C-alpha cells in the first residue's frame, strides 16, 4: 500500500481529535490505544450479555453462499472514512437536535445550547471503539461451504458458521456473534455486554479485487450509532522462502530447496 497515503490517513485515524462543546466544558482527550485494550474497552461499556438482534430473512440462503470473500486483503488508505471527520459531523448533528429540542422548551430561541456531557462521552466512546476495531490493515478471509473466518492482524478473528444454509451463532470472550446474507453482502452481528452491538457489512466488488467493510457500533447509552467505512485491496502474500517437513524423529527440518522425506 502507498506509504504516503497511509501516513496521511493514519495521522487522522490514529487520533480522534478533541472537540470543544459549549455549555459542557472540554472533553477529555481521546488517546489511541493498542488492540490489546479492545476487550477492556468492551467490558467497560457494559456488564450483562444479550442475544443478537438480526433480521430473520438474512439468516438463511439457498444453494451456495451468495459471494466468495476468500483471500488476503490490505487496507486502501486512499479511500474510506476519517474517524475525526465522522465524529465532527455527529457532534454537529447532535448539536442541531439539541437546539431544536430547546426551541420548544421554556427558553425558546436560546443559542447557548450544546450537547450534554453524557451524550458527548457516549458517542466519543463509540468512535474510539469503531476506530480501534477497524484499525487492522490486513484481513485474511477463509471461506468454505460451512463457515467464513476473518482473521485480522493483531486482533481477534470473526467467525460465521452456516449449516444447511442456516446461520448458527457463535460465542467468544467478546460476546455472541451471528451472521447472515443481505443479498450479496455478508453481515456480522456481534452483541457485547449491556446493549453494545458491532455490525460489519462486507461487500466485494464485481471484479473481486476490492472489498468494502462498513462497521457500525451502537449502544443503548448513545443517541446515535457510529459508522466507519474501510476499503481493502486484494493482494498475494509473499510465499515462504523455506520448505519444511516433520521427520520421524519429530524434528522440524526446513530448507530453501526441495526436501525429500
Describe this structure in words.
This protein has 261 residues and is an alpha+beta fold. It has one domain: Lipocalin (Beta Barrel). Helices cover 21% and strands 31% of the residues. The strands form three sheets. An eleven-stranded antiparallel β-sheet has the order 7-6-5-4-3-13-12-11-10-9-8. α3 runs antiparallel to α4.
Give descriptors for this structure.
globular, 21% helix, 11-stranded antiparallel beta sheet, two-stranded antiparallel sheet, disordered N terminus, 15 strands, alpha+beta, 261 residues, Lipocalin
Layout of helices and strands, plus pairs?
Elements: H1 3-13, E1 20-21, E2 25-26, H2 38-44, E3 71-75, H3 83-103, H4 117-133, E4 138-143, E5 147-152, E6 158-163, E7 166-168, E8 170-171, E9 176-182, E10 185-192, E11 196-204, E12 210-218, E13 226-234, E14 243-246, E15 252-255
Antiparallel strand pairs: 1-2, 3-4, 3-13, 4-5, 5-6, 6-7, 8-9, 9-10, 10-11, 11-12, 12-13, 14-15
Mean pLDDT across the residues is 75
Radius of gyration: 22 Å
CATH homologous superfamily grouping: Calycin beta-barrel core domain
Q: Beta fraction of the residues?
A: 25-35%
User: What is the spatial order of strands in the main beta sheet?
Assistant: 7-6-5-4-3-13-12-11-10-9-8
Largest sheet: 11 strands, antiparallel
According to CATH, what is the topology?
A: Lipocalin
Looking at the overall shape, the CATH architecture is Beta Barrel
Q: Could you say which structural class the secondary elements and strand pairing correspond to?
A: alpha+beta
SSE pattern, N- to C-terminal: HEEHEHHEEEEEEEEEEEE
Query: What percent of residues adopt helix (DSSP H or I)?
Result: 10-25%
Distance between the termini: 39 Å
Number of domains: 1
Low-pLDDT regions: 1-53
The shape is globular
Oligomer: single chain
Number of strands: 15
CATH class, named: Mainly Beta
In DSSP terms, counting alpha (H) and pi (I) runs of 4 or more, how many helices? 4
Amino acid at each position: 500500500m502507498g506509504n504516503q497515503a497511509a501516513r496521511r490517513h493514519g495521522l487522522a485515524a490514529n487520533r480522534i481529535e478533541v472537540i470543544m462543546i459549549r455549555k459542557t466544558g472540554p472533553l477529555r482527550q481521546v488517546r489511541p490505544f493498542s488492540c490489546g485494550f479492545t476487550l477492556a474497552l468492551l467490558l467497560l461499556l457494559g456488564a450483562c450479555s444479550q442475544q443478537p438482534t438480526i433480521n430473520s430473512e438474512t439468516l438463511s440462503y439457498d444453494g451456495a453462499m451468495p459471494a466468495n470473500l476468500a483471500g488476503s486483503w490490505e487496507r486502501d488508505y486512499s479511500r474510506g472514512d476519517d474517524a475525526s471527520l465522522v465524529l465532527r459531523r455527529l457532534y454537529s448533528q447532535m448539536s442541531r437536535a439539541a437546539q431544536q429540542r430547546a426551541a420548544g422548551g421554556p427558553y425558546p430561541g436560546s443559542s447557548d445550547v450544546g450537547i450534554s456531557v453524557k451524550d458527548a462521552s457516549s458517542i466519543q466512546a463509540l468512535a474510539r471503539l469503531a476506530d480501534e476495531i477497524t484499525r487492522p490493515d490486513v484481513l485474511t478471509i477463509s471461506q468454505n461451504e460451512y463457515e467464513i473466518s476473518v482473521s485480522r492482524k493483531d486482533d481477534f478473528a470473526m467467525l460465521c458458521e452456516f449449516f444447511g444454509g442456516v446461520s448458527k451463532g457463535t460465542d467468544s470472550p467478546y460476546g455472541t456473534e451471528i451472521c447472515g446474507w443481505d443479498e450479496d453482502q455478508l453481515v456480522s452481528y456481534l452483541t457485547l455486554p449491556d446493549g453494545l452491538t458491532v455490525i460489519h457489512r462486507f461487500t466485494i466488488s464485481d471484479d473481486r479485487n476490492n472489498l468494502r467493510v462498513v462497521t457500525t457500533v451502537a449502544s443503548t447509552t448513545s443517541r446515535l450509532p457510529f459508522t466507519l467505512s474501510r476499503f481493502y485491496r486484494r493482494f498475494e502474500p509473499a510465499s515462504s522462502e523455506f520448505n519444511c517437513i516433520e521427520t520421524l524423529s519429530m524434528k522440524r527440518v526446513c530448507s530453501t530447496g526441495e526436501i525429500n522425506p
